[in-house]
Structures are given as C-alpha cells and as structure tokens.
Amino acid sequence: MEDIERELERLFDTLDERELDELVDDITIEPDKQPDLDGLFDGKGHIKMKKNISRKSIAIIAATVATLGITVTAGAAAISNYADHKQIIEKTYGSSAEEILSKHGAVTDNTAAAEHIKISQLTSLSAGDMYDTTVILEGTDDTGRELINSSNIYTEVFYAGTETPVKYDGGEGYTYGEGCTTIRYDFSGIEELDTNKGLTLKFIPAKRVGDNENEVMGEPIGEITVKPADNVSAKLFKSADGCELTLSDMGVICKGFGKELDFEDANITVTYSDGSTREFEHGYCDLGYSMEDGKTESDITIVFKELADTENVTDVTLAGVEFTAQQK
C-alpha cells in the first residue's frame, strides 16, 4: 500500500484543484459500504479532497483504493472502476458537446443497478418530436465486464410501467473501452411514439454460435427508464413557397418538402449571422414521401451526427432549397 500512497501523492502534486475535483468525483462508493472517515465522503458516495490534503487522508484514501481494486494512473484526471463519461459524451456528440449539453441541462444522473452491471443515462435531449439519449452499460465485476465484452447488446423498448412494446430498430452502439458499451438512441420520427409516457430500455445480450452468423439471445441483464425533458428549443424557418422547417441543436424536421430525397441528397447547410456557414453530417435520417395529384411531398427528419450551436443561424439550406428564419 505504500506504493499506492506514493503514487497518489505524486499524482496530486501534478494536478490543480479543478483537476483534483474531477479526479475524486469519479471515486464512488455505495452508501452501505462507506466507512466512517470523519467527513471524507460527501453523502453521495464521492470522496472529498483538496490540494492541501494531509498525509493521513492520503493513507486512508490509499487504503480505500487498495480495498476496492481501483487503478491509479499518473497524469490522468480520473481514478475510477468505470469509463470516463465526459470523454464518452464528447466522442459521441462532438467536440463542442459539453458546452451545448450544459446549456440545455441535458447531462443526467439517472442510473440503475443490476447484477454485475451498472447502467447510466448520460444525456437527455428533446425538442418537440425529436428525442435523443445516450446510455452506457458498465461491468461492475469480472463477470459483468466479460459479458459485455463477449456479447452484442440489443435493446427492447417498452412504455414505462407497461409491457407495451415500442417499435424501434435500436440504437447505435459504440465501444470506447473494455467492459463497457455505449448506446446512442434517437427516437425521432417514429410514428405514434409517445415519449411523454417515459420509455423503459431492457438490455438483452446475444452471443454468436460457432462460425456462423446465428446468435443466441440471453436473458435481460438490466433495464433503465428514460423520459424526455423538453429542454431544447427549436427555431422556425420557411422557404419561398411556404414550406416550414424547424431547426434545433439536435437536427431538423421538415414536413411537406416539395420533392423526393435520397439519403445522399439530404444535405443541410446553415448560415450564421456573421456570414459563416457549416454543413452537417447525418447521424440519423428518416425520409418519407407521398404523391398526390402528381405532386410529391416529403416528410424529413435529420438528426445531426454532432450536436450544433444553432442559436445564431439565419438561413438553412436543405437539398438546395433555402429556408429563412422567421421572427418570434
């Protein structure tokens, strides 16, 4: 344990107070397992430390670290059994994600515990008919980590408190580290989906059998209930022929667009008040169309791959058609 103490002391010396706060925020101990250490914990399971930490406190923390099997990594602002959630959010939503999510109050602390697995809802973004959320599953022990590493994780979606299934193709999965998997869900453009009821996500592991592509589905390993917060505002734009488009930091919805689009044609470019422009890459794209009396109309939902700051956008161009911001 002396080696751990020395490593902790050396690590603390390299960090400023902000980095130290970030580091200890990731050390969490369940309330029933917290020892009585004279106010060392903040009541939520997090260890409290400041730059002038005493050697006695370092020894206590070193003992805690050793007991829990936590790894100390010099030069990294985290000591955790779990993944770096801030880094995962940035990788999932883009480099400016933290600022945009904070603006909307879209970072959540919704968690659920299951045997061998910890489930955390990292984000919750909603604007009208658009709802986007990201969940991470992390193994809490060797059994859980091995299960996640060796399985494809599928999601069954139900209205909260019911066994009524929701037709949904599933989220987009990411693997950013060992023993954890991140899934980004976009519930936008799904017909008759009532997100106001809340949605329960049940996670099903599946493993391949032999050399073929067949998979054997296992029993659910956990679930979490999520609900939109209606926390993202949308701005209205109109084209010269009166077609309406709504834009938010998440993406665009346009109903009654005057032509049929392919995925490759559904390009979005925005113009800001300072004259600069930006083109957005799709994360999700739903293109439905109908034809009546020889006239084609498309209903379009496009979720941006990366979150965007759209507050000062004056014009939107969709597939070559320009839409102008309307006064509030």
What tags apply to this protein structure?
19% helix; 328 residues; 9-stranded antiparallel β-sheet; 18 strands; Immunoglobulin-like; 5-stranded antiparallel β-sheet; alpha+beta; 3 domains; 6 helices
Describe this structure in words.
The protein has helices spanning 2-13, 17-25, 55-68, 85-93, 97-104, 142-150, and strands at 107-114, 117-127, 130-139, 152-159, 172-174, 180-186, 199-208, 215-217, 222-226, 235-239, 244-247, 251-257, 268-272, 277-280, 282-292, 295-304, 313-318, 321-325. The chain has 328 residues and is an alpha+beta fold. The protein has 3 domains: 2-68; 85-226, Immunoglobulin-like (Sandwich); 235-325, Immunoglobulin-like, CATH 2.60.40. It is globular, with a radius of gyration of 24 Å.
Topology:
Blueprint: H1 2-13, H2 17-25, H3 55-68, H4 85-93, H5 97-104, E1 107-114, E2 117-127, E3 130-139, H6 142-150, E4 152-159, E5 172-174, E6 180-186, E7 199-208, E8 215-217, E9 222-226, E10 235-239, E11 244-247, E12 251-257, E13 268-272, E14 277-280, E15 282-292, E16 295-304, E17 313-318, E18 321-325
Antiparallel strand pairs: 1-2, 2-3, 3-6, 4-7, 5-6, 7-8, 7-9, 10-11, 10-18, 11-12, 12-16, 13-14, 13-17, 15-16, 17-18
